[in-house]
Write a structure and sequence with these properties.
2 copies of one chain form a homodimer. The first copy, chain A, has 325 residues and is of the alpha/beta class. Helices cover 40% and strands 12% of the residues of chain A.
Amino acid sequence: MNSSKSFPVIDALQASNWSRSHFAALADAGVDAVHVTVAFWHDCMETLAKIGQWNRWFEQHQTLILPVRSADDIERAQQSGRTGIILGFQNSSPIEDDFALIEIFHQLGVRIMQLTYNNQNLLGTGCYEKSDAGLTKFGRIAIREMNRLGMIVDVSHTSERTCFDAIEHSTRPIAITHANPLSFRNVVRNKSDELLKALGASGGMLGFSLYPLHLANGSDCSLEEFCEMVVRTADLIGVEHLGLGTDLCLDWGSDYLEYMRGGTWDDQDASAVHWPAYPGWFRKPHDLHNVARGLQQAGFSQSDVALIMGGNWFRFFREGMRPAE
Amino acid sequence: MNSSKSFPVIDALQASNWSRSHFAALADAGVDAVHVTVAFWHDCMETLAKIGQWNRWFEQHQTLILPVRSADDIERAQQSGRTGIILGFQNSSPIEDDFALIEIFHQLGVRIMQLTYNNQNLLGTGCYEKSDAGLTKFGRIAIREMNRLGMIVDVSHTSERTCFDAIEHSTRPIAITHANPLSFRNVVRNKSDELLKALGASGGMLGFSLYPLHLANGSDCSLEEFCEMVVRTADLIGVEHLGLGTDLCLDWGSDYLEYMRGGTWDDQDASAVHWPAYPGWFRKPHDLHNVARGLQQAGFSQSDVALIMGGNWFRFFREGMRPAE
């Protein structure tokens, strides 16, 4: 993906229906670390069961994957040709209303938590709500605890105001692990230039999404269009704040998409739910090579391509996963 | 309390540390129905255990109390000299994020649910949050389900905007079971005149609180001051929308007050938490007789006193607990 392989290749969000074949595909593609989604709407007990499943996978598939608790583990993965797995939540539902569960989940290896997933929750407002109150009382307290532990604050599915509030309240840089600029496609999941500038100015990171609904022209988005958008974003906030968070979700049925979108309560029409097709040039981990090639063709230097493909995330995770002093 | 006893006497909120002696005191005072708090921050499992406890109490103390599932049960209680117990939640935490749990808890006898308790939750904003987004997507869906079932929407601890939103979205009148006008004491738990007028205009009910922090002059509030406030509120929204929700909380330690206020996450200083003293003229259920006397001395007719002491709540519960047609 980059000939020197000086930096690890990192995908800051994949949420597939995991099995050994996916782990083999990641290792084969040369992906050194991937942030995986443990919880969408899951409560504490459900999440503990999911982490238990990951513990079994780490044991069963140890020739392919290993758990990432610090950046050292990403280097270990790179050196041994495996993929480091960063456990993360796309929602704060696992901590329910209990402050103490943040540290408990950190002890269990969770290193990234998104404050909200689409809807309002106890920490803040999600991007699909009609009105936006920003970070709640509990949200401010939770961020302080995440800062202390070295659990990264993710705001990908979070409302604009909650994103700004999180940047302001967090004493450490935060991440949008998987989203694109609103100027690329005007959907609530993408982010305004003002927000992206504030993110970059605070030392934060943006992971570009390849989920079709976040792309100009959806499934028909060309590699060139995507890479030109990366160029424009580098001009806007600086290449050092950019990475990938592909949002690659493989092998789920439409029932799981319905669950991801609506949880246990939304009243959308399930028959209308279907997975969009990823662009032809990005349908599997190995296609990250296409992205790297496209970035170089769009004018990025080889070293900048390496930064976008994982070097920036590596630096960010190395700092962000350290406990506060 | 009223000589004819044509209407039941109803207290629309008590949250004591219940035991047989409290049930005996209610029956002895001639209280025909009381809305009790099953859950403050409790999740589904914790709440099921609490309902299980109530089921045992209904069996053990059946000469004193009975469960209220409809207004007929309040009349049964009145006729047999017992106290009907209306099970209610002060928070939506028991339904977690699961729409289907609303009907489940209705089947188990819960007839009142407050949308939020002080803080932001999945349904709406609480009265202690800094910013106020009103009712959430889930909140609108939950109210629709409560309307269908005949579960009463309570907004006592809810933010101003969420109260207005609930009045607008609910197809049936809603309740503020325990609060006072903001003009009586300017605290976030009390309600603005604009909100009270909207509540009354929509057929809703206000239960006056006797919790000291909701009273002018706190523990030193006189019976006359309290009753004059009732007169002013009757002038504002009509006597037919008024009742009592005393918020009488007996026999809890300061640890439980800390839990009620902060749940499992707030970072307030526990050493600063203590129960305020109720006014000398209202310290036990029997003191409702003092309130009835005070209302008459403040100029209410005997029939209006009977309406405020329970007749209005009886009418409201008779309609509100009926399933939608």
